[in-house]
Each structure stands twice: as C-alpha cells, then as structure tokens.
Amino acid sequence: MKCLWGGHFPLIILLYLLGDVTSQVNPGVCRYPLGMSGGQIQDEDISASSQWSESTAARYGRLDFEEGDGAWCPEITVEPDSLKEFLQIDLRSLHFITLVGTQGRHAGGIGNEFAQMYKIKYSRDGSRWISWRNRQGKQVIEGNRNAYDIVLKDLEPPIIARFVRFMPVSDHSMNVCMRVELYGCEWLDGLVSYNAPAGEQMSLEGQPVHLNDSVYDGAVIYSMTEGLGQLTDGMCGLDDFTHSHVYNVWPGYDYVGWTNESFPNGYVEIMFEFDRTRNFTTMKVHCNNMFMKHVKAFRQVVCYFRSEADWEATPLSFSPVVDNVNLSARFVTISLANHMASAIKCQFYFAEAWMMFSEITFQSDTAMYNTTLAPPKTGSSPPTSTQPGDDPTHKIDDSNTRILIVCLVAIILILVAIIVIILWRQVWQKMLEKSETFAYSHNNPTSSSAPSEQESSSTYEHIFPLGPDYQEPSRLIRMLPEFSHTSEDAALTSTAVTASKAPTATVAQDGVPHYAEADIVNLQGVTGGNTYAVPALTMDLLSGKDVAVEEFPRKLLTFKEKLGEGQFGEVHLCEAEGMKEFIDEDFSFNISDNHPVLVAVKMLRADANKNARNDFLKEIKIMSRLKDPNIIRLLAVCICSDPLCMITEYMENGDLNQFLSRHEPEGQIALISNVTTVGYSDLRYMATQIASGMRYLSSLNFVHRDLATRNCLVGKNYTIKIADFGMSRNLYSGDYYRIQGRAVLPIRWMSWESILLGKFTTASDVWAFGVTLWETLTFCKEQPYSQLTDEQVIENTGEFFRDQKRQIYLPQPVLCPDSLYKIMLCCWRRNTKERPSFQEIHRVLLESQA
Ligand SMILES: *[C@@H]1O[C@H](CO)[C@@H](O)[C@H](O)[C@H]1NC(C)=O
Ligand SMILES: *[C@@H]1O[C@H](CO)[C@@H](O)[C@H](O)[C@H]1NC(C)=O
Ligand SMILES: *[C@@H]1O[C@H](CO)[C@@H](O)[C@H](O)[C@H]1NC(C)=O
Ligand SMILES: *[C@@H]1O[C@H](CO)[C@@H](O)[C@H](O)[C@H]1NC(C)=O
Ligand SMILES: *[C@@H]1O[C@H](CO)[C@@H](O)[C@H](O)[C@H]1NC(C)=O
Fold first, then answer.
1. How many domains does the chain have?
2. Is the full-model pTM beyond 0.90?
3. 3-class DSSP assignment, residue 320
4. I want to staple 638 with a disulfide (CB 3.0 to 4.6 A). Which of 168, 285, 479, 645 is the partner?
C-alpha cells in the first residue's frame, strides 16, 4: 500500500467511505495538505517580506508548483543571524498543523536555490508571533539538500495557528528560494489560549517529576497566560504519568499537574478563550488516576461562561464519579449544555493530593474531526493509529449495519486491490515511455575530493523516459523501487522524504548561486574536442605555472586537411618541419631529422571571445601535463600571436575506428576479398595500450569523458595513442546525442550515472572502455546498440539504473573470447565501485597476452 501514497490516486476517495468522525483532533490523522499545492489557499493569502522579482513573488512559493520562476525568492541574500525574510501563509482560520513540507527552486533545471535550514513562526491573531520550538527546545528545522526534493518534517509539538511564517536561515550568505506546504486540519476546538496556574513539581520516591507545561507557547511566570501547550497538543498521557510517549524526556512530561498544598481554595482555575462565540456541547478532560500515587481525576468542576462581555451569573457544575478502582488515565466528559460562549472558566476541585491533566478538548456547534486518512501528496504515509480515549459520538449499535459495513469494506478492499494493480502497471508503463527533458545544476570540481574518487559533474539538459509530467531526477529515483524510502514509522519522528540514498548530481554549492544560472556545460572544448575533467587541486597547481612547452614558428606548419571543428576553432592535420628541436629531450619522438611529421593542430579562431581564449589556454595547461606513451602528447604551441594553436602528435594510420573499418578479421572472407587483416592478438595488443593510457590518466585523476575508438589514434605496428578530438569531427556526429543544439553527448559510450546524474568519473571511463573494447572486437563494423534509437539507448540506461535484469548489454562479438567479454561485463556493472580499475584491466589484458 505504501507506494500508493506516492501518487495522486483516486482510490483515496474510496477510503473516505470508510471514514469516521471524532470529537477530538487526532494528530496521526490530521495531516491533510492545507492547500498550497492544491490551490485552496488563495494567492492573496500568501505574502512575503520581500521578493526578488515579480516572477518569484510569494504566490509562487507553492510546493510542487513550477509557475513563475519556480519558487518564492526574497529580494536579498539570506545572511547568518538575520531573520528578516519570511514567506507567510494566512489560513483564514485556526488550524492544527502537524507537518510542513519544503522544496527549493528547480525551475526545470535553471534554479538551484533552496533553504538548508529554516525556522517557523506562527500566530493565531496576526499580532502576537511565536517561534516554534521542538520538544527539545530547538528552533531550527533542517530543510532541503537540493532544489527539487520535497522534504517533510513532522512538527513536534504541532502548531495551532492561523498565520504561519517560513523563515529561511543560513550559516553563510546565500540566495534562498522556497516552496512550501502545510499539513494538518482545521482546529475545530476554536481554542485560542488557556490560562492556568503553572504546573508543579512532584517528588516521587526522591525523584522529581516535572509536571510543568513544557511546550506552552504563552507567557509563564507564576501562571500561564495567552498560550496553548500540552493540553492541546493532541497527545494523551499514559496511565503511568512517569512514563511518556515521547522519547528521552523527563518523568511527568505528558502531564500538567498541581498539588492541593498550593491551592487553599481546593481547586485549580483554568480559563479558556475561543476564536468566536460558540455553541458548546461538551468538554473532555484527559486525567490521570493513579490513586496509589495520590493522583486522581477531579471531584467536581464548576464552569462559568462569558458570551459577550459579561460572565454568566449561574455556573454549570458537574461531579464525576470518583474512581477508586480503575488506574487508567481517562477522558472525563462534561456536558456544557449548549451554552453560548467565547470564554469558559472552570474550577477543577481536587479529589486527591494531586490532579494531572494531559489534554482538554472542546466540542462546539456540530463540527467533527475526520478520522479518515489524509491523502498526502508527497510520500510519507501518515500513521493510522487512533488516540486512546473513547468516542461516544459515533457508535454502531445495530448488528445488521455492522454486517453490511463489513461486506462493503470487503468489496471495497477488493476493488482497491484491483485498482492498485492497474495503476501500478500504468505507472511503470509511463516510466518506460516517452522522453522528458530536465537538467542538472552544474558543480565545478571544486571540493577537494579524495584523489581516487575524483569526479566532475556537468550540466546538460537532460533526458529520461517518463510520463508527460515534468519529473525531477530525484522524483524519478524515488519512484524506482530500490530507492523507495523505508522509514515509515513516522508518527513521532521527523520524516525526511528525500532520495538521500540515491546518488544525486547536485552537491551543495559553495559560493553564491545566481538566479537563472543555467550554464550548460558540455564536454566540448572550444575547438570541438572533449575536454578532460581535471581535479581542482591539479588545476590550481597548473594555474600558476607557465606552459612547459615551446613556442613553435607558425610558418613551419603546412596545412593538409581539416579534421574537425568546434564553436570557436578547428582541428587541422598538418605537417611540421623541424619539430625535433622543439620538444623535450625526455620524449623519444622517433623521426629522422628534417623529415616533416604529421601533427594535429588545434586552432582557436581569432574572433573567439575571452572565455574561449581562457578555456583554450587552460586546455593547453592540462595537455602539457600528459606524458605517456599511449596518450597523444602536446608538442608545441603558438600562443605569441593569434590564432592560438596547440600542436599535438598525430599518427599516420588515423583513428582506430577508421583503421579497423578498413580491415577484416583473419579468415576465409578476408582471403577471398583480399583485404588486409588484423589478428586477434593485435586487437588485444591495441586494447592493452588503451588500458595503459587510461591507467595513466586515471592515476592523475583525469577523466577523459569520451573514450571510444574514434578517439584512439593508430601508429606503426599497431601502436595506440588516446586523443580527444573525435567529438569535433563531422564523421562521427552520429555517435553523439545532441541536446537542444548545445551539448553533445556520446550516450552509447556513457555509463548510466553519466547520463542520468551527470557524473563523470574514472569508473565511467571504465564503462566507456568496455564499449571501446567491444567496438574493437567487432572491427567497428557497427555502432554500439545500432538497433536502438538514441531514445531507446537512454531508456536502456534507465534499465541499467533499475537493475531489474531488463537492461540490454552489448552482445559478445564473434571474435571475442569469454575472458574478454567478461571484462566488458565487469566494466558495465551498475555499482561504480564494483567496476575494475584500469590497472586491473591492464593487468588482465597483459596476462592474457602472455
Ligand atoms: C475532513 O476531510 C475533508 C476532506 O479532505 C477536509 O476538506 C476537511 O478539512 C477535513 N476536516 C477536518 C476538520 O480536518
Ligand atoms: C519544565 O521542566 C523541565 C525539567 O525541569 C525544564 O527543563 C523545562 O525547561 C521546564 N519547561 C518550562 C517551559 O518551564
Ligand atoms: C446550540 O446547538 C443546539 C444543538 O444544535 C441547538 O439546539 C441550540 O439552539 C443552539 N443554541 C443556540 C443559542 O443557537
Ligand atoms: C479502566 O478505564 C479504561 C479507560 O476508561 C477502560 O478502557 C478500562 O476498561 C477500565 N478498566 C476496568 C477494569 O474497568
Ligand atoms: C491534600 O489532599 C490530601 C489527600 O486528600 C489531604 O490529606 C490533605 O489534607 C490535603 N491538603 C490540603 C492543604 O488540603
């Protein structure tokens, strides 16, 4: 059943049929969304201290809404210790509020503002504001971790209020946006405050029992004034007053108690004030009756009523039967005989040395509380437990009726079960159909992650198969069974409905985010190739240094052909003369003197903007770090004048994809058709070199992000060097999935977490290596998953994520021995930690060669 609450299901209506009403509020049931997301709360009842713009006004602060710019955002950044900003909701009447939900500004991926913490203030009359505290006295509530998840928090104690303010709090200056919802029900008691003598302290066998009203929200000096507290928190005390429902509190927590020693008149007077004049039927007082510990319910109560300004002359008096037998705590019901009043003053007479109350409720007019479960919108299923205490208002005496109801219930349950099955199927179907676009926020690899865990996240407009509704990534994850949250014992504890178990792309950002910060970072560098993701630490080290390569005289380059192009530049194949003089001695560049060599020249167009220039210079610095026999090396640069160039190695046989396409495996067909062949051992040798180059890259914590045969160059004797300009080449545009004309992604080579979460790590390079190995073994005769469309490839990624054995793996190539296919399958393991390292892959390939 649990899953049902995640959606908006009509069968809730069926459950209503089973509903019941009761005369006092039940916090376990009183958890209805009060109308921020549902729209019952009008725009004019939502206000705020300030707004960033008209499109982030208070009325956009509705949970789960995407209107306007996606949330309420205050005008200025939230500073530590300043509580100036708030979002205020006027519920128009008193409500019992048990739960709050918050969410940040996601706005289809553009937004990334949320409140990590917040406080709540509330008011019953609009003038006296009270700061909410939990039962431990803490005011700050943990809020959101990202811009899209809804986080629900139980309010313990619950609030009785008409006005509620959400006040974002931060420990550093930051932009905050919020969407909120309140959950609860109308406060039918209409009680605004009770005034009573302060609760006292009992000494029981030498131990203190504190009978004060610990959550009273009015003033407490000698007496309690103008507040509500434990007598209205919906929580009845246990039979033994020294114990409590609440964890980790002092003895006597649930009760407010007094001793006859302090009240010479023999009674305790409590005054109740109401929101308006009401027609009262009953008052119920929940009393302790542990007579052997000198606690009893009251002997008599005398109540006075005030309707307009004056107290009625004749009071109402009631004497319950003093119970010397039953130790149970109980509700004592007092008939108030349809008195009209806006205030009631009652004198409770001691029957023993002590008198202890835990709840007092009022029934007036004809209003009754529902006990039907609320249909929560978000995910936590409210507990169904009902309060201890009787409900005399709605008893079913007729046994025929009872049988009828039992039958109805049975029929309805069967119907419900059928509907559940149907809906469940539909939900799954929906998830498998259609693509949706969403985006991730961008985080620079700034946080100094552990060297072995280096990763970078890129932003790109994002695709995932889902229904027509807009879906955030985490919402999606939540719908997947392996991430459905399990903590359902939610009655008294905080329930955070987040996909905290799921890996999410967003990381709390340092620095100040800006509105509309929608920088779509793609993998592409300025000249069209992919850029390596580099640990922040390395970048810092590089930033100080001058480029460690020589300036090369431009005139010694001879253009041969254009290899590819990007937004701000091109990649040319050139011949360079006299290159030997310009390169490091430690680099054995096996060329005979004065013989021109083939080089690839990445060239920035002269009209490129400043950012592009900076990116290009950064790329030079990164490339200059790479010194490995299996990685294309930066040979020289031309940065003294425009256009800026970087000159890298090139290999005479071109890239591995084209190379293998021109060749055939050894065998009959090759003999007949007379094409050149490549043996299996050569394929394995080339794969080993790729693994070796990647091992080097990963040792520097560089992430390639576009490993594929098109990015491996082939030299003499099957030597391989890994390059990075495959993405710039028109030839391979079919290998990339273009998103809104901006970012291109090699989805057929990408791991599920790169596609779904924007996470690029060495482990995702390992995944791409598996695909590269597969290409190699199939002689690049077909694209990976050639039978699938791009959308289907992305759907398949979802299956990898869900891991329900429905994912499609690339098949074992004909030439490929089991041992090699096993490596591939290891590379495509769902869990990144279970994938082998390049070191291991290299070792296994090397050993299989021997
Ligand atoms: C009872 O349930 C209805 C239906 O959702 C709701 O509108 C109403 O506010 C509830 N009443 C109370 C007192 O909670
Ligand atoms: C109630 O008594 C407890 C225990 O002495 C104390 O910690 C708490 O502050 C008191 N609360 C109020 C509101 O007086
Ligand atoms: C109060 O309610 C009762 C029962 O609904 C009704 O009979 C009585 O007339 C009401 N009293 C007033 C003053 O309206
Ligand atoms: C004692 O009172 C409680 C609450 O009113 C009731 O449920 C229980 O049955 C009573 N026990 C006895 C022995 O009468
Ligand atoms: C308080 O109640 C106890 C028990 O009923 C009684 O013995 C005692 O005299 C009372 N004290 C006062 C001051 O009334």
1. 4
2. no
3. coil
4. 645
- In this predicted model, what pLDDT tens digit does every residue of 543-583 receive, in sequence order? 655 667 788 888 888 888 888 888 888 899 999 888 877 77
Looking at 364, 398, 425, the residue that finishes a domain is 364
Q: Are 46 and 113 part of one and the same domain?
A: yes
Q: Residue 290 maps to which CATH number?
A: 2.60.120.1190
Ligand at shortest distance from the CA of 212? 2
Ligand nearest to the CA of 216: 2
* Buried residues in 129-160 as b, exposed as e (16+ CB within 10 A): ebebbbbeeebebebbbbbbbbbbbbbbbbbb
- My answer on whether 643 and 660 are in the same domain is no
Which residue matches tokens 């089991």?
818
Which of ligand 4's atoms lies nearest the C-alpha of 327? 1
Q: Is 706 a catalytic residue?
A: yes
483 within some domain: no
Nearest Cα residue to atom 3 of ligand 2: 210
Pick from 446-450, 689-693, 797-801, 835-839: least confident: 446-450
Burial of 663-700, coded b for 16+ CB within 10 Å and e otherwise, reads bbbeeeeeeeeeeeebeeeebbbbbbbbbbbbbbbbeb
Question: Are residues 336 and 294 part of one domain?
Answer: yes
Same-domain pairing of 180 and 194 = no
Atom 2 of ligand 5, residue of closest alpha carbon: 353
Within 6 Å (CB) of ligand 2, which residues are found?
Answer: 210, 212, 214, 216, 220, 250
Pocket test for ligand 5, best of 202, 258, 260, 289 (most atoms within 8 A of CB): 260
- Residue 719: domain span: 654-846
The one catalytic residue among 213, 706, 724, 735:
706
Residue nearest to atom 6 of ligand 5 (CA): 353
> What number does the ligand 3 atom closest to the CA of 365 have?
2
As a whole number of angstroms, the distance between CA 255 and CA 244 comes to 9
Let me know whether 642 and 745 are in one domain. no
Residues 122 and 203 in one domain: no
Same domain as 686, residue 588:
no
The structure tokens listed for 563 are 């290899």
In this structure, the answer to whether residues 706 and 606 fall within a common structural domain is no
- pLDDT of 443-466, one tens digit each? 333 333 333 333 333 222 222 222
